[in-house]
């Protein structure tokens, strides 16, 4: 092959590149690829997430009357929120307030003391403006919820949808996290049938939450359910769990856990298995037991993943609606009603302003909790 | 060497094995959990073969021994009264598959863009946009201005302000901010946005249509796709993409020919997760569909409210039938996941 | 095809990584961009490829201004250090990818792929995946993929550095032969001076984002433009001794070396290649040093000596023997010395 031959060929290739409308269009697309790639997502998020978010806020500040196909909006500032927090809907959202019991006072003071100590410790450690403002929200929420629980739950009065939602989130996610991580740890041990357990433990995630709700309603049925002989034997044959606030809450939490423990399990097992073998082997040579190896070697390496997976779970848990709706329809009374369900019921009764206000309160609690958790736990774990 | 009983039970004899006591404990826990996981499913399964009498006369556990299985619930749903179920099933399939495809595609594109291009939007411009938007909404809400007029003039005002003020804004956002913004959309509880979305679709007369639900599902799942795929794309050696560009491929070509095939593993896992989420979604469908576009979860939830009480046998059939597409997809994607893992070693 | 860089600069934010680089690569020339890591050589190459934007200056390929052209329209092919083989495509698909993008007919494509594969002895392996190939074979696939479309310019970014030493020598020879056969203009980036010296028609030595010298390998070795070039090229590096230059006489310690010039520089450096020096009796020679170590390499002995603070390497015959700390004399041909200004690094005695 001679040089001239090559020159001619490359000449041809080059001549084919420029010119021609189609090539120009391709080039134009290529030059603007940066925008073409991101704009679909940005536009969709703007239209279906940001616009509604703003609109919802305006709705939360309005009184809306539907008349036929159209609606009339009257701007009422924070009246909707006022009604939820201090007015006629207070029992529904926050709970019923009566006198504080001694236990209530103790809890309230403990929470306050804890916050004061936290504030002082932070102020001593060189605060920044952004850090301080962010923490003010966290402190405010913790203090508010602490006092709320002290005045309702710990003083023997029923709490509202806020307390119920936090029960599902804090208690439910806590249980799910501990069991999920525990099962993942057990499955990471040298056991037989590991892939069997892995598949079986994953299954609940594939079942529709509505189905989970019904299945657990059947499970919990004291007269026709599979455990009814046991209930009868215990003398609880005619105990209606759906009529007892705490029994109902726990059943919903168990159903929710049954479905979501697999999620934590799968992610944590993958994380545990990706820890390099040599660390573990070095510890084994040093004579550490499986539990010590887990505690001292493996766990510190998977903490960032654990914190992230817990965050994801907390975010999703705040949105809980299908299980309470299917299993108890929020009852007895409002005992199992989550905030989403609360807003849904408000919407059903055509009270759009209240519905939006409750939704916004949920958003506020969710954002403060998740952002605090992210900044104070996840980021710190990742950096450590 | 004398070992105490406790030592004999709980000290491992070799490094790859566990002591007998530990073994007993570990296996009991795992087997207990297996039972806990499988029993409700088993119960649903046998209930689907029970007659009303079997269900109502107290618990029976073993088919052919405790009770005679019957196909009546299955027949009822698939032979005599199939129209509603079938319609909802097809609706659900169309909606879940389309929205999964759309959000995986759009989300992957955005994730790739954030992983490979640099964006530096001006903070002031973004702020202007948000303020103009709020003003437009206020105008629509409080003064009844037509929404088309409001959005058109809003965009016009924004463009004018962005051009006029653009150069005075100095602070810029980075890719990290955009990524955070997109992912943080997942924190948003659907209940916050669903009523305005309902009104939007009402305005354009798209309520109770597939397209409305597909679009909404696509958006709520975008953050998950972006979150999962971003890390995946970052881990692809950039050399491969640059090489393809020099070989003559366009950016879109690179994305399609090189990036997506190399991310099969991540795409498979993401697709499965998004599919499960949209297949089971309840709240948004509750708002956006009434009859024509009704999805399975809505249908199942509505079975609660029959005049004959809950028909547990029919309910069980529907629950089982609803698992099928997810399992099928899991099996299909399983193949790709393992294949992707084999190809995993990108650089040797 | 020619490649012309005219005062090309590149800044990343406030950091300027390339300063006014001007190069003219002739048609069919093999130009090597040589430099340590961070010298800006890879950035320069990536700018020619179009993978980095140009901050200032212009780039012409075959007389066409491509400064703002997309990479795919520049008609250049690049071989990456990692080879950048597509792991999900077979060898044949990898080689054929550039043709596939140009929508060549299937039959043509297959013929051309086979043709190129034959040239690099890959025809047996066309159905394999990259992960099933050895390092050398992957290297050939990368070359074949670059060759198959007959580009105007080959760009190579340290293509041999992932190979083991033995294979590297072999591939180097093959690469040189192939470039000669094809006659395609090639720009090659490396940090390895042996690669640069053996492969290049001309070497461009970069340091700190600035071009230090652009010359043939022989010229760059024998006539370095400044102290940096002198010390970068050659193995062992050029010996230097610090002293003063007074009216053409270089003074270091008690030694006075006549240089044949008449310059006076307070901080001066004398440079000597190891092979230009001889070890002689302490009473003879122009410089006098203490023996630090001697190492028998094989065909010669490398003698390391201390001259004040400076360390000198001398190639002596393989029979040379001496004890540690013995005084030795160093003799050399006065024509073979290089003089530099310590402060500016500039060559003092450049002739012509």
Question: Can you put this structure into words, describing what you see?
Answer:
- The complex is a heterotrimer of chains A (384), B (348) and C (352).
- In chain A, helix 8 packs parallel to helix 12 (245-273), helix 10 (209-220) crosses helix 12 and helix 13 runs antiparallel to helix 14 (290-317).
- In chain A, strands 1-2 form a two-stranded antiparallel ribbon.
- Chain A has 384 residues and is mainly alpha-helical.
- Chain A is built from 17 helices and two strands.
- Helix content of chain B is 73%, strand content 0%.
- In chain B, helix 6 (123-143) runs antiparallel to helix 7.
- Chain C is of the alpha+beta class.
- Chain C folds into two domains: 3-228, P-loop containing nucleotide triphosphate hydrolases (Rossmann fold, 3-Layer(aba) Sandwich), CATH 3.40.50; 238-341, Beta Barrel (OB fold (Dihydrolipoamide Acetyltransferase, E2P)), CATH 2.40.50.140.
- The longest helix of chain C is centred in the middle third of the chain and has 18 residues, at 165-182.
- Chains in contact: A-B, A-C, B-C.
- At the A-B interface, helix 2, helix 3, helix 8, helix 9 and helix 10 of A face helix 2, helix 5, helix 6, helix 9 and helix 10 of B.
Topology:
The complex is a heterotrimer of chains A (384), B (348) and C (352).
Chain A: H1 3-16, H2 21-31, H3 33-60, E1 62-67, E2 70-75, H4 79-85, H5 90-93, H6 102-124, H7 129-151, H8 161-188, H9 194-202, H10 209-220, H11 228-234, H12 245-273, H13 277-285, H14 290-317, H15 322-327, H16 339-348, H17 352-383
Chain B: H1 5-10, H2 20-47, H3 52-56, H4 72-80, H5 82-116, H6 123-143, H7 147-165, H8 175-184, H9 190-203, H10 210-234, H11 238-246, H12 251-262, H13 264-280, H14 283-288, H15 296-302, H16 312-343
Chain C: E1 3-12, E2 15-25, E3 30-34, H1 41-49, E4 56-61, E5 64-65, E6 76-79, H2 91-101, H3 106-119, H4 135-147, E7 153-157, H5 165-182, E8 185-190, H6 193-199, E9 202-207, E10 210-215, H7 217-222, H8 227-232, E11 239-246, E12 249-252, E13 255-258, E14 265-272, E15 277-280, E16 287-296, E17 300-307, E18 310-317, E19 327-332, E20 338-341
Helix pairs in contact in C: 2-3, 2-4, 3-4
């Amino acid at each position: 092959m001679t040089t001239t031959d090559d020159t001619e060929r490359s000449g041809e290739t080059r001549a084919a590149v420029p010119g021609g409308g189609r090539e120009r269009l391709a080039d134009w697309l290529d030059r603007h690829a940066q925008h073409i790639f991101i704009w679909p997502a940005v536009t969709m998020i703007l239209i279906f997430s940001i616009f509604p978010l703003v609109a919802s806020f305006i709705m939360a500040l309005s009184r809306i009357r539907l008349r036929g196909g159209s609606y009339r909006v009257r701007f009422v500032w924070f009246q909707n929120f006022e009604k939820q927090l201090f007015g006629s809907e207070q029992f529904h959202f926050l709970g019923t307030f009566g006198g504080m019991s001694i236990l209530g006072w103790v809890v309230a003071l403990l929470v306050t003391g804890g916050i004061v100590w936290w504030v002082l410790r932070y102020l001593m450690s060189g605060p920044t403006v952004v850090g301080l403002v962010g923490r003010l929200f966290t402190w405010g929420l913790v203090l508010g919820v602490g006092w709320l629980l002290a005045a309702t739950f710990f003083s023997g009065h029923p709490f509202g949808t806020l307390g119920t939602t936090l029960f599902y989130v804090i208690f439910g996610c806590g249980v799910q996290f501990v069991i999920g991580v525990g099962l993942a740890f057990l499955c990471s041990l040298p056991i037989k049938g590991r892939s069997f357990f892995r598949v079986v433990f994953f299954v609940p995630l594939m079942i529709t939450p509505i189905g989970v709700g019904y299945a657990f309603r059947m499970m919990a049925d004291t007269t026709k359910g599979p455990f009814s002989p046991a209930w009868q034997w215990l003398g609880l044959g005619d105990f209606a769990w759906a009529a007892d606030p705490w029994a109902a809450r726990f059943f919903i939490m168990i159903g929710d856990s049954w479905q979501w423990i697999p999620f934590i399990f799968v992610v944590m097992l993958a994380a545990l298995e990706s820890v390099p073998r040599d660390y573990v082997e070095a510890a084994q040579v040093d004579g550490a037991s499986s539990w010590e190896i887990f505690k001292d070697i493996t766990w510190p390496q998977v903490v960032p993943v654990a914190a992230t997976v817990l965050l994801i779970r907390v975010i999703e848990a705040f949105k809980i609606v299908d299980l309470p709706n299917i299993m108890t329809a929020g009852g007895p009374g409002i005992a199992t009603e989550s905030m989403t369900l609360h807003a849904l019921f408000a919407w059903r009764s055509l009270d759009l302003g209240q519905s939006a206000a409750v939704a916004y309160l949920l958003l506020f609690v969710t954002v403060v909790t998740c952002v605090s958790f992210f900044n104070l736990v996840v980021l710190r774990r990742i950096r450590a | 060497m004398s070992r105490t009983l406790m030592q004999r039970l709980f000290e491992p004899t070799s490094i790859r094995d566990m002591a007998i006591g530990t073994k007993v404990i570990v296996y009991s826990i795992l087997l207990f959990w297996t039972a806990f996981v499988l029993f409700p499913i088993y119960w649903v399964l046998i209930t689907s073969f029970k007659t009303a009498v079997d269900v109502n006369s107290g618990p029976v556990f073993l088919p052919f021994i405790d009770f005679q299985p019957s196909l009546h619930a299955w027949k009822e749903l698939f032979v005599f009264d199939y129209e509603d179920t079938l319609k909802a099933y097809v609706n659900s399939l169309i909606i879940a598959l389309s929205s999964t495809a759309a959000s995986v595609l759009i989300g992957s594109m955005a994730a790739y863009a954030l992983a490979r291009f640099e964006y530096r939007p001006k903070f002031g411009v973004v702020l202007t946009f948000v303020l103009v938007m709020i003003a437009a909404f206020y105008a629509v809400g409080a003064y009844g201005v037509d929404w088309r007029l409001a959005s058109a003039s809003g965009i016009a005002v924004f463009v004018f302000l962005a051009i006029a003020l653009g150069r005075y804004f100095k602070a810029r956002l980075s890719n990290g901010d955009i990524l955070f913004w997109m992912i943080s959309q997942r924190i948003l509880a659907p209940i916050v946005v669903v009523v305005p979305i309902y009104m939007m679709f009402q305005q354009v007369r798209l309520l109770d249509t597939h397209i409305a639900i597909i679009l909404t599902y696509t958006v709520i799942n975008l953050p998950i796709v972006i979150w999962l795929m971003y890390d995946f794309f970052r881990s692809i050696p950039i050399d491969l993409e640059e090489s393809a560009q020099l070989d003559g491929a366009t950016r879109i070509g690179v994305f399609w020919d090189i990036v997506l095939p190399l991310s099969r593993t991540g795409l498979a896992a993401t697709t499965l997760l998004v599919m499960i989420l949209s297949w089971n979604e309840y709240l948004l469908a509750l708002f956006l569909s009434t009859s024509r576009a009704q999805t399975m979860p809505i249908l199942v939830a509505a079975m609660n409210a029959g005049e004959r009480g809950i028909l547990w046998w029919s309910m069980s059939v529907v629950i089982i039938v609803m698992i099928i597409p997810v399992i099928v997809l899991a099996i299909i994607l399983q193949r790709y996941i393992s294949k992707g893992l084999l190809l995993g070693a990108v650089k040797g | 095809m020619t490649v012309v860089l005219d005062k090309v600069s590149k800044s990343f934010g406030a950091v300027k990584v390339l300063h006014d680089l001007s190069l003219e690569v002739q048609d069919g020339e093999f130009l090597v961009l040589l430099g340590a890591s961070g010298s800006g050589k890879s950035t320069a190459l990536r700018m020619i490829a179009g993978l980095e934007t140009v901050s200032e200056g212009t780039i012409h390929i075959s007389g066409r201004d491509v400064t703002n052209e997309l990479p795919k329209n520049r008609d250049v092919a690049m071989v990456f250090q990692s080879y950048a083989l597509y792991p999900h495509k077979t060898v044949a698909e990898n080689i054929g990818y550039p043709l596939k993008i140009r929508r060549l007919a299937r039959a043509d494509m297959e013929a051309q792929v086979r043709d190129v594969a034959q040239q690099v002895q890959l025809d047996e392996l066309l159905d394999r995946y990259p992960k099933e190939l050895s390092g050398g074979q992957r290297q050939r696939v990368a070359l074949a993929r670059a060759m198959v479309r007959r580009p105007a310019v080959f760009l190579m970014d340290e293509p041999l550095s992932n190979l083991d030493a033995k294979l590297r020598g072999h591939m180097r020879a093959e690469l040189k032969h192939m470039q000669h056969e094809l006659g395609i203009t090639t720009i090659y980036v490396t940090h390895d001076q042996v690669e640069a010296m053996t492969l290049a028609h001309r070497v461009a030595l970069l340091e700190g984002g600035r071009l230090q010298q652009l010359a043939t390998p022989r010229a760059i070795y024998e006539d370095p433009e400044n102290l940096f070039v002198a010390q970068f090229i050659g193995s062992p590096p050029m010996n230097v001794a610090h002293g003063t230059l007074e009216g053409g006489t270089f003074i270091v310690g008690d030694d006075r070396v006549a240089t044949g010039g008449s310059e006076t520089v307070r901080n001066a450096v004398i440079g000597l290649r190891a092979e230009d020096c001889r070890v002689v009796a302490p009473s003879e020679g122009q410089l006098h040093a203490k023996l630090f170590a001697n190492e028998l390499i094989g065909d010669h002995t490398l003698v390391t000596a201390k001259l004040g603070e400076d360390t000198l390497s001398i190639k002596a015959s393989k029979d040379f023997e001496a004890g540690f700390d013995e005084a030795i004399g160093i003799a050399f041909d006065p024509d073979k010395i290089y003089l530099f200004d310590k402060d500016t690094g500039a060559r003092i005695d450049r002739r012509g």
